[in-house]
Amino acid sequence: MASIRALVLNCTLKPSPAPSSSEVLGQEVLDALGDQGVSGEMIRVVDHSVRFGVSTDEGDGDGWPAIRAKLLDAQILVIATPIWLGQPSAVCKMVLERLDAELSETDAEGRLRTYGKVAGVAVVGNEDGAHHTIGQVQQALNEVGFTCPAAGATYWVGEALHKTDYIDARPKPDTTGRTTTALALNSAHLARLLAEQPYPPPQTRDVGVGPSRQPG
Q1: Tens digits of per-residue pLDDT, 64-100?
Q2: What is the pTM of this model?
Q3: Domains of the chain, with CATH numbers?
Q4: DSSP character for 13?
Q5: Could you give the angle at the alpha carbon of 96 between the alpha carbons of 139 and 162, nearest 5°?
């Protein structure tokens, strides 16, 4: 059985050691992945001086290259984000923008280096917007080469405009627990399948064969 590693990127706006509901749900995903034989770690992105940009290294002490190295070493990426104004956090959007650089990074056979990696999403908030946020993040991750499994997201949202966050929710809802378990189970299964049977390299055409692609 292939050895699988996971990386959870906690996209809270709060630097450590502030409590983070995204961290609580992200850790629950890691624990559920551990039940499937997957090892991993979580990184709180705001603690690492990640620069805005769309390259693999923005220089000047950019914290992204070190995070990216761990991402490339993992077979499962989970984005854990809070909801703000019905949207994924600004930190989450910054991470997705940094992942845009992967569209130019390929392996020796011409595949994106993110091909064969599985992506999941974990969302928390005390307002509406969980499905919208999951849809945005999953679409972006798929576009830059990740594969999203069935039931590839888990979330919790409290009553709108109330102050109870997931970190304070007692008891933890069974619905979130079940979706977290499904996310872990299907992510580990898919990651092992892709490790054993990678995507094929892209087919190339001879220059001049077929119609040219025109803008517009």
Answers
A1: 999 999 999 999 999 999 999 999 999 999 999 999 9
A2: 0.91
A3: 5-196 (3.40.50.360)
A4: S
A5: 80
